[in-house]
Amino acid sequence: MPSIRDLVNAIRQREGVEAAVVLGRDGLLIDSQSVSGLDPEDLAARIPAIIGPADELGEAISSGNLLTSVLEYRGGLAIISVLNADAILVVLVRPEANVGLLLFELRRNREHIAKLV
Q: Distance (Å, rounded) from C-alpha 82 to C-alpha 80?
């Protein structure tokens, strides 16, 4: 059975992916691989502040908690995937990357990925 490190490595090796970060709901880093110059611990610490309000919005519109969010910036995209009550996956991709297949695979394999954490 693959480990969380294997998962992070596999995602990071995809074309256009600059970082794959797994963190706890508390913002503490579990595992990561990224391009040099990126601080995965700093990134992980910022994610819970996004998840809370997104969950509140989901409740307000009767849609439940956040599962996946795609944030688009001038320099790329941040995909946030809530794996389970304890873990979150963040994938940073360059703007020219094709994220359609990545999003599909993350959604389809969410439960399997969550078991690795």
A: 7
Residue 103 has pLDDT above 80, yes or no: yes
Give 11-22 pLDDT, tens digit per residue: 999 999 999 999
Total of domains in the chain: 1
Q: Mind listing the pLDDT tens digit for each residue in 34-86?
A: 998 999 999 999 999 999 999 999 999 999 999 999 999 999 999 999 999 99
Residue 46 token pair: 């910022």
Q: What residue numbers bound the domain in which 85 lies? A: 4-116
pTM, rounded to two decimals: 0.93
CATH of residue 58:
3.30.450.30
